[in-house]
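chain below, 276 aa
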Amino acid sequence: MIPEPQRSYVLELLDGLGAAAESFVLAGAQAMKFMLPKARATRDFDFVLDVLALRQLDVSIREVLGSLGYTAVPEARNFQFQKAIPGSNEVMRIEFMGPEEERRKGDFRVEVQEGVHARACTGGTIALAESDWQPISGLLPSGRAATVRIRVIRPAALVLMKCLAMDDRYRAPRGEQHSEHDRNEARIHVGDIVAVVSAQARLDEFRTRFSEQSKAFPAVRARVLEIIRDYFDGEIKPGWLLYEELLTGQWGPEERAHIRSELRRDQRVLAAAIPK
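prediction:
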């Protein structure tokens, strides 16, 4: 579950958004906290937005964010917002993503409302469809108790999006200056893929869900299956090399035998859970 102090502030955000919160789907590492007993720590909240629904509402997302103390991250051009959490070194950072089909011509952004954009996201429409309601309870920053519902991406859809994100970072489109950062991001995405798949109680059901979710989007389906083959269909494929680097960084090179055992186990799990 989302820990404090971020839980209080995501409660505040969803409470403040009112009806607009129904068009927000939590994705990324924060969504993993609803899937795993122990997910990696992160301060960021990634939301896939139902852009078409939000455009029909009278609620101004920008005004709600401003009233709660959020400011736009300058370099993100109105799709990332953040606020400092009083009395701590923590921050709340939120990023908006939107279905790629809705992006502006010649731009990587999707216009949501005045003053609010989303980063165009391949598979965003799948994330909106493949989500479930989850309750969150706690205290608002004011001290008032609150329980809200949040839409959370399903595991198979999250793995699909993580495959796309891993491929994007591994190919390092931003150039040599950012290559090490992007490779590390790719390692993290691989670790998330393995963690989510390994947590599934029924790998056969996961495999079916993973295959079925993208049938209405043949281009996305073809790309994701190609990524899976290119990165995971073989022990020396890039996905497993990235994962080995991640484990070595976590456990140390002296744990070579343990790392190899973990790699073999996870290779069997992914082979059973993800179609090629």
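The radius of gyration is 19 Å. The chain has two domains: 6-153, 156-273.
thats it, cya
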